[in-house]
Amino acid sequence: MKITILNTTLGLLTLSLLVSSCDWFGGGTESPVTANIRALEASERELVHSSSQFALDLFQQLRKNGDPNQFYSPYSIHQALALAMNGNEDEVLEEFKNLLHYEGMELENANRAAESLTRYLLELDPKVRLAIANAIWYRQEFQVYTPFKDTVSKYYSAEIAPLDMTNPQSVNVINGWIETNTNGLIKDMLDAIPSNAVMYLVNALYFKGEWKYRFTSTNTAPFYPSPNREVQVEMLQYDEPANLRGYAEGGLHYLEIPYSTGHYNMGIIMSQEHDLDDKMESFNLEKLEFWRENALEQNLILHFPKFIMGYKIENLKEDLQEMGLNLVFEPSTRNFTKLFDHPTEPLAISRVIHDAFIEVDEKGTEAAAATVVEIFTTSAGPQQPRMLRVDKPFVFFIQDNHSGAILFIGQLGDPSQL
Hints:
The protein is α+β, with helices and mostly antiparallel strands. It has helices at 42-62, 74-85, 90-99, 107-123, 146-156, 171-181, 276-280, 285-294, 317-322, and strands spanning 2-5, 14-16, 70-72, 129-139, 159-163, 197-210, 217-226, 229-237, 242-249, 252-259, 264-271, 296-305, 307-313, 347-360, 364-377, 394-400, 406-412.
C-alpha cells in the first residue's frame, strides 16, 4: 500500500524567448565558491553506475502505481538495503547484490566504495548542505555479530544501539533520530514497533542548495495535466537569461538547472506532447548518461514550479519483490546469518518504509528522505534565447553533475492533486 501526502503551492516550468544574454551567479555579491572535484576511483565509478541503475529500476517499478505526483530518494533506499545486505551470505546475499547492481563486486569493495563516494558527495560543494546518516537499533536482549557491527560502523558510519522494543515509547527514539537528521522535514515516520521486531536499519538523507541562477519574480500561468484540462499555478521566473545545459531527442527534452557551483543540479525530462508516460517506458540509464554527455548550453529564460511535495511509501516489499528481492521477505534460517552472535528464530524483512519531502522556492531546493528496514523474527558557445514551453507533466531528479549519482527522483503530473 502506498500513501501519498501532498501539500503544495505549485508553479509551472516554461522557457521564454529573449534576445539578450548574460551569465550571472546567484544574484548576490559573494565570490563564487570552488567545488571540491576530484577524479573518481574505478570502484566509485562502478558504485555510481550501480546506484544509478538501481535508481532507474526503482523509477520504472514505482511509476506502475499510476500516481501523477511522486518523490523519493533511491540513494537513501540503496544505502538502507546495503546495510541489510551486509547481514547476509550465500544465495540471499546474491539477491541483494543483483538488486543493488553489485554483480561482480566483492562485498568489501562495494562497502569501501560506498564510504568513499559518500565522503566525496558530502565534500563536493561547500555551498550545498548535504547530510547522509545511518543508524541501527536492535532488540536489547540480542547481541549483534561483531564483524557486521564493525563493517557498518566503518563503511557507513552507522550509529548502533540497543533498544527496549517492548517499551511503546521506544518508537520515539527512532522517529526523533530521523527528524533530527532530516532537519525536521520527516516526522513520525514509524507508527509503532511490533512485538516481533528485532532490528531497524535506517538511512536519512538531507539536501539544501541555492540555485546558481536565482529566480526574481513570480506570476501565474496554465499547466496542462492533459490536453483538454488546464489548471492555474504559481511559477517562479528568471528576469535575465541563463546558460542551462539541455538535450532533445525522440520528442523528449532534458534540462539541467544548476545549484550553487553547478556541480549539483536538478535535471528534468518532459515530452513535447502529452505522452510522457509512454515515452518513459523505454527510459534507462544508458539514455540518461548519453543525454548528460551530449547536453549543450542553451541561453534560456526559465519559469519553474514553486512547490512542496511529501510522499510516503508505507511498504516497498511488493515492489522490491518484483525487482528480484524475494528470499529475505520469507522467514528462514538462511536470512541474516551474519546479523547476530547467537542463533535466532527465522528472520525476515517485514517492512521497507520510505518517506520523502521536497520544497522548491525562489532561493533553491530543500529535500529530505528516510528509509527504514524493519527486521522481524517468527515467534558549445553562447546561443540566443529560444522558447520551450514546458506546460505538461515532467520527471525531475536531483543529481551530482560530476559523478552522476542520483539523490532524488520525482514526477509532476497533475498540480491540482497536490
